[in-house]
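FW: tagging you since you asked about this chain on Friday. Here's the raw sequence from the shared folder, copied in full. Didn't touch anything.
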Amino acid sequence: MNKTFSTLALTRRASLAALAVSAVALATFAAPLPSVAADKSIKVGIMSGEDEDVWRVVTAEAAKKGLKIETIAFNDYTQPNEALERGEVDANAFQHQPYLDNQIKTHGYHIVRVGYTGVWPIGLYTKKYKTVAEIPEGAIIGVPNDPSNEGRALRVLQNEGLIKLKDGTGILATLADVTENPKKLEIKELDAGIVGRSIDDLDGAVVNTDWALKSGLSPKERIAQEPIADNPYRNFIAVKEDNKDADWVKTLVSAYQNDTVKAEFDKVYKGTGLSAY
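HL: got it, structure written out here
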């Protein structure tokens, strides 16, 4: 073979090979970078009931961003944090900060808030009286028995002049902090999920708004309510502390905090709950 021709052929082959490598490299760099949440699947603990409808929309929004969500519905408020701490779910969405603070104090959980969802103002409901002033001496009033919601309920009663709490009492007030009870009310501590359903056996009950909805209570039967402004009881999405800065967490929060989910939230809760982000 002619030496010159051989050299030219080798040079041409080398050039073609270099072009091929360059093309692959360019194709690689030109390809869109995958979403940080692409192919990521997580489990989110929520409370059973109306919130399941809201989270179906959240799940659809997350899927558009490459995040697959499987919701795990619980019936007991004590379960979602335990499941999160154990790694049985990756996130949960059901609680407010005072409740989580008490859970951390009691159980040593390593759980943090990452994005607000909604707020459900707690209120005093009754089927027997039209106003707080009509509540008689010795009336039986039900309140939630978990520490954060009991304190919240007692503050509603205090705001209405039915009781007085010890000066300096924090948000975790208990019956032991009641210093004045002019109508000699009998205050019964009941599970948050039961107190609303027990309304027929009570003269009144302070009920979380989501549980009031589940119990068939209407705003017409609410004669008092906690203030909305600066409410510390906004619910939120929570994760393990080690995951708080993870990309999938940002995707999860954005999948909830948008107009599409808000529209479903408003439809489901009919004004009893308010978006809080």
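FW: Confidence is low (pLDDT under 50) at residues 1-35.
HL: agreed, and Residues 3-30 form the longest helix (28 residues).
FW: great, closing this out.
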